[in-house]
Design a protein that fits this description.
Length: 170
Amino acid sequence: IIFSYLGHFGVQLFILISGYGLTKSMLSKPQSWGEFMGSRLKKIYPLLIVAILTFAIANLIIFRQMPALGDWREIGWKMLLIHTLIPGSGVSVCGPWWFFGLIVQLYILFPIILGLTQRHGTKILAGTMVISYLWIMTALFLCDHDPGFVLAMQNAPGHLPEFSFGIWLA
């Protein structure tokens, strides 16, 4: 119960460390955006495929049936890595899979944020954090209790503060 309650701190810590590690890596060995994304997707997709196959096999063993048609639609959104952008799909099928969409969104934004920071200084990171906090507070206040709304914390804007802080630390 304690780990379940405190789990969100692990996510935030992982994202902070990701921002730090990605920055250190990119500064020591610069890559184009395409090379960067390709190397990251090569790491993410095998894990996602193993998770989906495990889910399907577990359904066969436990329930003696394949996942329902609606589950396959949701799995398709997850394979496209857009599930957190679709209302009600972020935590469908398997709750922790929301992280795949989030981390890919951060990967997409990372070279842009790092490039802007290198050109304009850390004020870019400060501005990113402020805009993100405004996004989070607005989304939580206006929409977070609506199950048909895309949740702020399942997407990159909800985690840009700790990601940007990791970039700044590096």
